[in-house]
Amino acid sequence: MRNKIANNNFEMGLQSFGMGVWHWDIIMNTVFFSAESLKIIELESDDIIDDWDMWYKLVHPDDLEMYSAFILRCFDTEVSIYEHCYRVLTNSGNYKWIIDKAQVIARDKEGKPLRVTGVYTDVYFQTEKELELEKIIKHHDEQNKLLLNFTHIVSHNLKSHIGNIKLLLDVHDLIKDSNPLETLENIRIVSNDLNDTIAHLSEVVSIQNNTSINVKSLDLGEFLKKILVVIAPQINEKSVTIINNVAIGSQVIFNPAYLESVLLNLTTNAIKYASPERVPIVKFDFFIENQKKVFTVTDNGLGIDLKKYGAVLFDIFKTFHAADHSSGLGLHMVKNQIDAMNGKLEVNSKVGHGSCFKIIFKE
């Protein structure tokens, strides 16, 4: 009698903390759930779950495998108390998260379990708050990625345009017989491209408070043509042979600022890491493969040791050549921007032979 009163007081104490008590007689396959246990899953006290199979059916289908493993661990003689978090179906038709703690309290002579007792706690609100926190963290992470992309595009793309304007003016000052109208026309071309870049950046700014990125159908051939005009001084300086097989009118779904950044980074990298042992060649192709639009940038430059650097190829601030004075940010941004567009970036490279960067567009 004293033990019964003590057990009742114990269960009442657990219930005051929002904990439900349950007992399972394995031999008889009967279960008892306290009033608080039933309350947690929104059942009335007279709604009886009289066998373990009925409880088993309340467990979320996605949690059944782990729940079964939880029960088996409870049966293990080496485990005294085991804890598991899973979802159960409530009377309202919704699933609720609970933390269940169980212990075998009686075994036969061979160590097989006879009775199990346990308590479970409603952690629905706690779990929901954790999931909400994860969403907030993910949102801020996406915002940080957008900000990093924006910062890189500003520093890299605008630098190219401004550098070309300065170069045109320097050349004009050096050459006595230079044609001012020709210089002005070249500056106008670069200025128009600069204006387009600023417009694209304005679009990026307008979406900084939203993780959804503006995408539209873009003319890949036209974008590439503009990029080649912008970096013409670098192409001429290294006498690079450009093979452009991308026709005007080749449409892709992408963010304008991101597409410009990707093309500029991949092209300038191909030129920057040209081999001094041969005439630099950079080739652009656009085709359909496995019903997907594919764009490739192929060069015959220094190449990358993928066995050595493949795992960290797109990591931020990573560089792969001894005389490399770059920031190591370009490829990271390219990968980040293509991922943001749900595309795929593949690399095939061999040291001393060159590299091929392959973009597989989402559609």
TrEMBL record:
<dbReference type="Pfam" id="PF08447">
    <property type="entry name" value="PAS_3"/>
</dbReference>
<feature type="domain" description="Histidine kinase">
    <location>
        <begin position="153"/>
        <end position="363"/>
    </location>
</feature>
<protein>
    <recommendedName>
        <fullName>histidine kinase</fullName>
        <ecNumber>2.7.13.3</ecNumber>
    </recommendedName>
</protein>
<dbReference type="InterPro" id="IPR005467">
    <property type="entry name" value="His_kinase_dom"/>
</dbReference>
<keyword id="KW-0418">Kinase</keyword>
<dbReference type="InterPro" id="IPR035965">
    <property type="entry name" value="PAS-like_dom_sf"/>
</dbReference>
<dbReference type="InterPro" id="IPR013655">
    <property type="entry name" value="PAS_fold_3"/>
</dbReference>
<keyword id="KW-0808">Transferase</keyword>
<dbReference type="InterPro" id="IPR003594">
    <property type="entry name" value="HATPase_dom"/>
</dbReference>
<dbReference type="InterPro" id="IPR004358">
    <property type="entry name" value="Sig_transdc_His_kin-like_C"/>
</dbReference>
<dbReference type="Pfam" id="PF02518">
    <property type="entry name" value="HATPase_c"/>
</dbReference>
<dbReference type="InterPro" id="IPR052162">
    <property type="entry name" value="Sensor_kinase/Photoreceptor"/>
</dbReference>
<keyword id="KW-0597">Phosphoprotein</keyword>
<dbReference type="InterPro" id="IPR036890">
    <property type="entry name" value="HATPase_C_sf"/>
</dbReference>
